Fold this sequence. Notes:
By secondary structure, the protein is of the alpha/beta class. The chain has three helices and five strands. It has a three-stranded mixed beta sheet, covered by helices on one side. The two termini are 16 Å apart.
Amino acid sequence: MDDPxxxxxxxxxxxxxxxxxxxxxxxxxxxxxxxxxxxxxHAVTRLMKSFDWNVLKPEGIRVVAIGPSEDGxxxxxxxxxxxKAQQRLDAIYGRNLIRAHKTSAxxxx
Length: 109
């Protein structure tokens, strides 16, 4: 939600055009619909549940947070070397599934 702009942003993964049209018609100008998420939230949640928190430990990188992004990715928070973490996660899980980011404490998304 963007209170100053009075909009609600929604990320969908290949939704039927009729659904998008209904959302936009219900409150014209309020919904900002992105129907280009690479995968639905349930797929990200499944990946999150199977994620190995120790996968980057051999590289000396500590994973301290994971959670789904609003736009169809699993966000993985690491304490150091984001680029190396991203490269390793891409090699293990495949490209375009996980987005690594730097964080200093364990947080929930």
